[in-house]
Every structure is written in C-alpha cells, then in structure tokens.
Amino acid sequence: MVLGLFLALIAGSLVGLQNVFNAKVNRHTGTWTTTTLVLGLGFAASFMIGMFADREGMTGFLPHMQTWFWFSGLIGVGVVTCMVQGMRLLGPTFAVAITMTSQLGLALLFDTRGWLGLQQVPFTLHQLIGVLVFVAGIFVFKLGGARERLKETVRRPGME
Question: Of the residues 21, 49, 80, 158, which has the fewest C-beta atoms closer than 10 A?
Fold first, then answer.
C-alpha cells in the first residue's frame, strides 16, 4: 500500500508538472501543436522504453485486448487539449482543482457501478462526505482568491 501511495503521489506531481509545461508550450505554438508534441513525444518514449524493458508485452497484447480499449489514446488527446485550454482560461491551480474533482467523481462512479470491468465497491456515506469536502475546498480556494483580487482592484495607489 505504501508503494501505491508513493507512486500515486509521483503521478500527481508529474501530471501537475506536465500541465505547466504544456501551458508554456501552448503560449508559443497552439493547442493542437502542443497536443501533438506531448502525445507524440510520449508515444516515442513509451515505445522505446517498452521495446527495451518489455518486448513481449509490447507485441503480445494485440490478440488479447478488446478493440474499444484502443481508443484510450483518443481520450489522451481530449485530456491534453482540454487541460491546455482550461489552464489558459482559468489559471493552472483552479483548472487542476476542477480536473481533480472531475477525476474523483468519475472514479467513484466507476468504482461503485463496477463499470469497464472494475470490481464493484459499495457506495458509502464516507465516500460522499469525502467528495463533498473536496468540492467545498475548491469553493473556499476560489472564493478566497476572489476576495483577495477584489481587495487589490479596490486599492488605488496613494490611498493606503
């Protein structure tokens, strides 16, 4: 379990870092160029590492995988495109917070329904409270920031 927690923390950190990089690239190129660059380089790196580290796994999955799982790459296009635009429109922290809330809600839904072959987990009051606390934290974060920005716009030079 400790390893799982550690890997999840690393994954979250890497996603946050990637989002910042993607936003910087997007400022200089555009959404589709950014998406192509991110996913293209990711494919090349994954393919080379996979061929070195797990050659059998890289070629042996074809007959055993359901066809619709192949579309996860298209989902990746949506993820990168939406995150780049969301960060441009909302700012990095708020966009990531909304994304995490969406991920948490959808993961909870898939777990409790057992969709896509996941083991069904019973829905509990604790899970609902956890999601609501998470959402409330985002509201506190966003409203707190709005108050600070409002104070800054009300202040005028020489009026303090």
Answer: 158
